[in-house]
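hi! just following up on the protien thing from before. the input was this:
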Amino acid sequence: MTLKRLPILAIAFSISLSFSGCSTVSKPGGGFNLFTPAQDIELGQQVAQQIADDPAQFPVLPEKGNEEAYAYIRKIRDKILNTGKVAYKDEFAWEVKIIKDDETLNAFCTPGGHIYVYTGLIKFLDSEDQLAGVMGHEIAHAAQRHSTQQMTKIYGLSALTSIVTGNAEPGLLEQIALGLISLKFSRTHETEADTYSVIFLCPTDYRADGAAGFFRKMEGQPTPPEFLSTHPNPGNRVENIEAEAKKLNCRGTKSYDAEYQRIKAKL
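and the predicted 3d structure came back as:
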């Protein structure tokens, strides 16, 4: 798969503006990004294919026999997307896959909107609004185009311009796609994704601070996931998420605990 070649000036100066507030649709997060949204889509497709080709590392739960679990996760996704607050709602894939790994407390979303949720995270959480909060956070990373902003920083202007001009070293695109699977976001990006998680849930009937439940539970873990080690303190994130929900005057109160426990029992 190759990235589409586009005029260098058009790409090099595609600096995005970010908007906040519950009354706006999310826009790509601030920061220099050499990739275009179309290239986010192509990179996401390549990453999704690499994940599908590596069942040992990413044992994706098959749809057959797990239809109810998939329908449940997609219902949560759709409630978030249908708020009208998510950028690229109609352009990105927003495809959902469940990874069968009860030991991993994680979820992630590739560029272009391929969403992966681990069974370990689903079983760790207590309610639907908590999972919706985490999914909103991951969707925000894709909608704000954080991954390709990070890749622009990591690989630099010369390497990425070589891709769009067709002069890249062999394997560079594959290297970038592989790097996206284990990419760590900056503290700024994590804070922004936390904020947009609230913005996304605010128009729904969920508790808009659902993601705070995840971080509150993480505070009690003796060995939190490695991916949290360089991120903002979970306690601070709980405070910030709850403060954002209060600032936006979010009214949702639903957590759907009973339904969530029923789905958990099926995994």
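The CA atoms of residues 155 and 175 lie 10 Å apart.
DSSP finds eleven helices and three strands in the chain.
cheers
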